[in-house]
Amino acid sequence: MTEPSAHFLLAAAALSAAAALLHIACIAGGPDWYRALGAGEPMARMAASGSWYPAIVTAAISAVLLVWAAYALAGAGVLPRLPWMRVILCAITAVYVVRGLAFVPIMILMPGRSLVFWGWSSAICTGIGIVHVLGLRQAWASL
């Protein structure tokens, strides 16, 4: 049963699941999707050449995002309680917020993607991080 104070965690779960599905769609869509979603030309070229590397990396990211969605659903009371729920939900939140706000250092460490990609992906991660922060605050007592 959903906790009455868990609306933001439900939204956080939906956002992580949507991000996971977008990554899966990228695998299915192939090189053009890798390019359009900003994965970088090297990933698009590898996908075009039939390399499994882009699909494996993208599937791993999708799996992580689905686990994060499951933790948010558990925090909202939709799924059974998961191990270390408070700690892991705080860590997930931190990853989203740090990824969103630290786009300049990440951009330097991971060249080859456009400024548009870094701007949009950072804004999206910051937004999802804020939803997680609000969800943690809202549901903290029940976690």
From TrEMBL:
The chain crosses the membrane at residues 51-74, 86-109, 115-136. This is DUF3995 domain-containing protein. The lineage of its organism: Bacteria, Pseudomonadati, Pseudomonadota, Betaproteobacteria, Burkholderiales. Residues 1-19 form the signal peptide. Keywords: Membrane, Signal, Transmembrane, Transmembrane helix.
